[in-house]
Amino acid sequence: MKLNGARADAFLKAPPPDSLGVLFYGPDQGLCSERAAELAKHLTASPDDPFTVTSLSADDLVGDPAKLADEMAAMSLLGDTRLIRVRLSHERSGASIAKTIKALDAAPQRCAAKLIIEAGDLSPRSAVRKGFEAATHFTAIACYADTQASLANLVKSELAALGIGIERDALDAFVPLLEGDRRLARGEIEKLALYKGYGKEDGAKVELADIKVLAAGAGNAGLDDIVFDVFGGNPLEADAGYQRAMAGKLSPHSVLAALQRHLVRLHQAASLMGTGQSADDAMRALRPPVFMMRKSAFASQLRIWPETALARALASSLELEKQMKSTGAPATSLMGRLLLSLSAYAAKRKR
pTM to 2 decimals? Predict the structure, then answer.
């Protein structure tokens, strides 16, 4: 059986008694894990008890193809419902798993346990996926990335539960940062709630300024300003920001790491544009996507920096990293020199 959307949500809230197992698959691994944990609480009173829950890996089933059937038939010594959890990192045992599911589905009375399998993004040709979809007592549930609308609802509901509101422009800026993984999204919402004091103040509300501070981590906001000034061709601003960072006891190695992260993202976007994608599409494809308030600057940098120049800049940063680790030259001076060199190049290119 295959379930999607509202039917899948209803199933997870109240799984039918004759359900023997569920396969969670799809590109959003965080959502797979979240749904699997939610279902486990319905299937057993002790989802964290090693005597009640048996965990298997994909390799366990390759080495012993009959292991899954044996575990599903084994009775609990304590008389409660056993739970078998499988994390399927590959499908080398896919055919034997599908065969086991078919046999158990035909004879459900043989099952003394319930089954949860977490897998990756399985294709329609997957033997495991087809086995679950064709069964009556086993269910396949796809876990695709949240839409912006569903993420917005998640943000509002999670914050509202803590007595925290969020302004519309702040929500519009925050949601694009959460795309791709439900686990990441919940972590960022938790960080935002912590920043706002978990709603201990009456009328607490998230504003756009809060999102800007937290977008890359409060401690990295200054680093982002330096990096964007460098690649945007603003050498005076970049140097002034760097000097402030050094006066504030920030490590030049931290600046280099931020520079390299940004370089990699620019290079990835430039490569996508080389295949015919627009700048907007290339920025949306990055994970995490470009922060809304930085999109214009990022797009400008893509016009300034050709892919070949980005490759050379990345090579220079890697060489600098070696020098900073292996020579006696002051790391602060080496880093400052690279920042001025890159920002000067960008300044010439944007004229």
Answer: 0.57
